[in-house]
Amino acid sequence: LLLGVLGAPVLGDPGPLEDVVIDRYYIPKICLREAQMGDFIRYHYNGTFKDGKKFDSSYDRGATVAGVVGVGRLITGMDRGLQGMCVNERRHLIVPPHLGYGSIGVAGLIPPDATLYFDVVMLDIWNKNDKLQITTLSKPERCNRTVENSDFVRYHYNGTLLDGTPFDSSYSKDSTYDTYVGTGWLIKGMDQGLLGMCAGEKRSIIIPPFLAYGEKGYGTVIPPQASLVFSVLLVDFHNPKDGVFLEHLEVPESCKRRAVTGDFVRYHYNGTLMDGTLFDSSYSRNQTYNTYIGKGYIIPGMDQGLQGVCMGEHRRVVIPPHLAYGENGAGDKIPGSAVLIFDVHVIDFHNPADPVEIETVFRPEGCNVTTRNRDFVRYHYNCSLLDGTRLFSSHDYEKPQEVTLGANKVIEGLNSGLLDMCTGERRVLIVPPHLGHGESGARGVPGSAVLRFEVELISMEEGVPEGYLFIWHGEPPASLYEQMDLNKDGGIPAEEFSTFIKTQVAEGKGRLMPSSDPEKVIADMFQNQDRNQDGKITPDELKLKSDEDQEKIHEEL
């Protein structure tokens, strides 16, 4: 094929021409393909005579011309002049009469022996043997799964014709395109082009017309026989048969217990879409998410995803939309049909039926005396959350903690954990919140937190029954008042009372309620007996606790 390229003076007066004159006055920098004999092409043109008078124009008709090049369906000059063109290339063609309409012309339109001038822009080239052209533009480093037939995909796209003319974009609608793959809901080329994609992958997909909208085109935006170019970003995908996918990121070496249905779990999480977009985070609120699992209080996928977790475990939970927020999504941050990814850190969990868990770290040999309720104990402790967060410690103070067991002075779980201990014994206590500070927590203690105590019993003093400040080791003296009235003046002031009680304790005849302040215990005893508060106890006022209790029984009867 001879392609004559002539200079400007010759174009002005070419004289008799033997072949088509071609002026490639615009050639795109990138030319992926040139029109070859047998290719289908689509182009626009203006046709004029030498004097510039227009005889035809595809622009005036508002439709491009589509046909096969090089097989005789066009005038010979156009057939030759279009071959070798790139998409978006522009050419001036001069077609001599014998390669145009010859000595006959076209009645009323083109006179005989007319030289024709065409200004052509190539818009599309394809061939019936073409296949889908897929170019991966970017791909995530991690890709555990790729799109298969029957998967439901969510993707963004820009759609253009082969010459770059845009015809549609999901970005302009501010919404992904959501559909099933391989079920006939998409054009064939897109059905094929999405297969094998990873979430987060970007592709360029060039689809020939016979895998797109073919001879009919689509509306006013996609002409007949148009090749389509899609730039696709796959946001996420799933299959309706998918279950929850778990990835164990970090599991503690020691996992004595795993969460089951009915347990109350406290956990931190980051929630993202499959493309990495963060939609929620407990860390941003500086507060764990607290809930029962397996009871429908949370989305089904998370209910399943938290089953079997260990305390301290880091776990990734991937939840398909039918186990999350479905087709409707949630709010303005979770789109419809979105796959959700939760990176979870389990802080602790418990069951409302849990007792205090006691682990004896050290117990002295020959331990015969152990603590009971009403005993007065001194102990050291360290208190922390199960994730190791330190809360309180008696070592921060000058002396050990002191308390009377069973007097509701410490949380129930700690009280239970201090019972039956020997002096010098060390224990680790795991206290569930219903035996600790409950749902509300306390100053420095989060709500519903499981607490860990390391305790060491320093000393213990035998206690007295509830309601008593002093008990006799045997029978009390028969003439108690006379013995207590040391100066025999018929009245017992505070000094005499205190002296008498201290003497009984010193001689082992009785004992005071254990306390860090015995003087206050004796003062309380005196105040209880000095019923008219005149500063002395009379014979009528002095009564044993046991006698007082008996009188109350008679009164009730």
What's the helix and strand layout?
Layout: H1 8-12, E1 21-26, E2 40-48, E3 54-57, H2 58-61, E4 65-68, H3 76-82, E5 90-95, E6 116-126, E7 133-138, E8 152-161, E9 166-169, E10 177-180, H4 188-193, E11 202-207, E12 228-238, E13 245-250, E14 264-273, E15 278-281, E16 289-292, H5 300-305, E17 314-319, E18 340-350, E19 357-362, E20 376-385, E21 390-393, E22 401-404, H6 412-417, E23 426-431, E24 451-461, E25 470-472, H7 480-484, E26 492-493, H8 494-506, E27 510-512, H9 518-529, E28 536-537, H10 545-556
Distance between the termini: 129 Å
CATH architecture of the largest domain: Roll
C-alpha Rg (nearest Å): 47 Å
Number of strands: 28
Ranges with pLDDT <50 over ≥5 residues?
A: 1-12, 552-557
Helical fraction: 10-25%
The domain count comes to 5
Major beta sheet summary: 6 strands, antiparallel
Number of helices: 10
Per the CATH scheme, the topology name of the largest domain is Chitinase A, domain 3
**Overall body shape:** rod-shaped
Strand residues, percent: 25-35%
Mean pLDDT level: 91
Secondary-structure content class? alpha+beta
CATH class of the largest domain: Alpha Beta
What does this structure look like?
The chain has 557 residues and is of the alpha+beta class. It folds into 5 domains: 21-126, Chitinase A, domain 3, CATH 3.10.50.40; 133-238, Chitinase A, domain 3; 245-343, Chitinase A, domain 3 (Roll), CATH 3.10.50; 357-461, Chitinase A, domain 3; 470-556, Recoverin, domain 1 (Orthogonal Bundle), CATH 1.10.238. The protein is 14% helix and 31% strand. It is built from 10 helices and 28 strands. Strands 1, 2, 3, 4, 5 and 6 form a 6-stranded antiparallel β-sheet that branches. Strands 7, 8, 9, 10, 11 and 12 form a 6-stranded antiparallel β-sheet that branches. Strands 13, 14, 15, 16, 17 and 18 form a 6-stranded antiparallel β-sheet that branches. A hairpin with a 4-residue loop joins strand 20 and strand 21 (390-393). Helix 8 (494-506) packs across helix 9 (518-529).
